[in-house]
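To whoever picks this up:

The nightly regression suite flagged NADP-dependent oxidoreductase domain-containing protein as changed. Nothing in the input moved, so I suspect the structure step. Input below, exactly as stored in the fixture:
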Amino acid sequence: MSYLSPYHPDQPEPSIAPFDLSTIPDEDIDHPSGNDELLPKALKSPKDRRVIFPPLVLGCSTFGYGIYADDDNVKSSLPLRIVRLAMRCGINAFDTSPWYHPSEIVLGQIFKSLDYPRGTYHLITKVGKYGPNSRDHHFDPETITKSVERSLKRMNTDYLDVVYLHDIEYILPLPSYSGNPLDSLSEILNSPSTPSKEEQILLTAIETLRSLQKEGKILQVGIAGYPLPILLRIALLVYQTSGKGLDVLQTYSHQTIQNSSLSSGYLQAFTEQAKVSQVVSAAPLSMGLLTSSGGPTWHPARSYTKLYETTRKVSERCKESNMSIEEVSLRFGYRPLKQTDGKKVPIVVGCTELEQLHSTLRKWKEVNPSFVFEEREKQQEEYEKQDKGKREFERELEKMFEDEGVKNWSWACPSDQQRQG
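Regenerated output under the current build:
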């Protein structure tokens, strides 16, 4: 029997029990505690199908078995409670994928139980990645179409707000672009516009998604992945070969206190040269690397001794100042970042506990304050005075990464093992 990737759309569909809302707690912790946990909301009708990203997007990889949470967490009422709290606080966009199994199914069951009007929330999913290794990535038109149809069914909807090609780098040949992506920026911008055969597969996949977009099944089409040079190369090719830029592009772990390559050159290249309409940034804690624990055991940075050990030194430095690396990293990652056209870059965050979501909202509000119009100047001055010391400490930590030679350093993706697997 030929190999079939574990989450390929031709695999049998698993059964996930629906939520019984009457048995699920709805306590104080399930509600925003005040204005410092409420995001600004876009004014639009529930029948309006425009995609208006909130400042924070809830990443739902935490609803996948063994990714960031254990199976018991995924099977509990916590996913529903987290989504409900997010909606109550103004986070109304949810990022999922078939790879985060069974996240799409769980999310569909959640919204079926909560019964919000479809136009009040955004469903963002992906196609192409159905397992951990290069051979599990399938971007042919038939698989993409099946995958979109399955996602629509799983999430009980007739349209998806955004669909990305997921981890496009896995089907491309070497190099994997480890090191500082800024070193490759000029080379990518000046590379020829003739696609390789592997790149052509991705361009055809974008056309497949755009065909589904014309049918009204998808509102926005984009790409998602890790290596910035590869994302830029494909975004440029899409624009050069079709005359139309991508609607949206998502990268991760590239706007952090350790690696800010996005704001240091790539954001401008994506929007100005590749004509990407909206850039999205995920993982301000770099998938757990910038935490006290150092992230999950599978984290790719654990294979790079100097990078990993420097994050441990930074963590200790934070503790010496009575702070946590999480606190400082989130503050850095949540600072406002705007495209040259004025659009804000939304940030994708994941939470496995309700308190994590409360903390995330407060931390975002801390560096994105709103001021009373009549006292704006005075409040702004006071805020900047209080924020000055925090910025100086962030700069000190950035310098620690610089001194060790790992500032803006990206790991190889996919790894040699994933290419061969």
